[in-house]
């Protein structure tokens, strides 16, 4: 994949297998515009099947991580004959596809958040497997303030924080500090802004050193079992572990542990 920049989305693949994606549409506060969403669909789809990519970091340039949907695009669409219904439907379907591509991606995805993440931008953070944020970062689902409830951001938010905290964000539209976001589970932790990239990349490198097969198996199982009843979750995860135990990397990893040596992964 190498390094690539198309102006609003920069990608850099490191030798460690970390793919660093950077939103860079600062004039629009890294809005999830039609253009940005299409590029995210492409890059996450490509990364999912690229064996060189082991972990994905999603970062952003400028004071906003992402301000969510482009309200100017939405307003312009109201002039269509159907008052924008077809446009809104396609826009939200594409946005939902991006969020689901993150969750279904076999590679762990880490959000690195500086600045503000609001509405669908907050949804983007919540959809990532892990999130680190600068202690100055802030989060909100402020749609209620403009008569448009953050119903799609609610899906990711409600799956990551307790209901009362999610509803408070959704019903008030208030900004939440990075420390509060950590407390309620929206992010893993808040760190000093000057240390954020180093800490995020260190976490990514640690994860990238694991067996890619094991990570893919575990991530898929994590999200799938979370929607099941307790007995079904145990039945399913037990079968996943049986299948996992029969893989090369499990045999190698257990053998290396017993023999007190470093495992040599084949990602299979």
TrEMBL record:
Keyword vocabulary terms for this entry: Fatty acid metabolism, Lipid metabolism, Lyase, Transit peptide
Keyword Lyase: yes
Domain of life: Bacteria
Protein known as: Enoyl-CoA hydratase domain-containing protein 3, mitochondrial
One BP term from GO: fatty acid metabolic process
Function: May play a role in fatty acid biosynthesis and insulin sensitivity.
Pfam families tied to this protein: ECH_1
Gene Ontology terms for molecular function: hydro-lyase activity
Signal peptide: none
Lipid metabolism found in the keyword field: yes
Family of this protein: Belongs to the enoyl-CoA hydratase/isomerase family.
């Amino acid at each position: 994949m190498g390094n690539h920049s198309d102006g609003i989305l920069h990608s850099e693949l490191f030798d460690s297998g970390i793919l660093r994606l950077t939103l860079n549409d600062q004039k629009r506060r890294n809005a999830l515009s039609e253009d940005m969403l299409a590029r995210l669909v492409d890059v996450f789809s490509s990364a999912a099947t690229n064996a060189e990519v082991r972990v994905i970091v999603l970062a952003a340039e400028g004071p906003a991580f992402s301000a969510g949907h482009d309200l100017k695009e939405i307003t312009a669409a109201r002039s269509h004959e159907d008052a924008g219904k077809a446009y809104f439907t396609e826009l939200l379907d594409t946005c939902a596809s991006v969020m689901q591509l993150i969750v279904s991606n076999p590679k762990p995805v880490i959000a690195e958040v500086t600045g503000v993440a609001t509405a669908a931008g907050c949804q983007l953070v919540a959809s990532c497997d892990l999130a680190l944020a600068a202690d100055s970062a802030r989060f909100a689902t402020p749609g209620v303030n403009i008569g448009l409830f953050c119903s799609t951001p609610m899906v990711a938010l409600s799956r990551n924080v307790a209901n009362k905290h999610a509803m408070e964000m959704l019903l008030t539209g208030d900004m939440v500090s990075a420390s509060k976001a950590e407390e309620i589970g929206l992010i893993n932790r808040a760190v000093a802004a000057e240390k954020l990239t180093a800490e995020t990349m260190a976490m990514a490198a640690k994860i990238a050193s694991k067996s890619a097969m094991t990570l893919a198996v575990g991530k898929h199982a994590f999200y799938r079992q979370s929607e099941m009843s307790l007995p079904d979750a145990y039945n399913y995860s037990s079968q996943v572990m049986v299948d996992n135990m029969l893989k090369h990397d499990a045999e190698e990893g257990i053998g290396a542990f017993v023999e007190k040596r470093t495992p040599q992964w084949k990602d299979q």
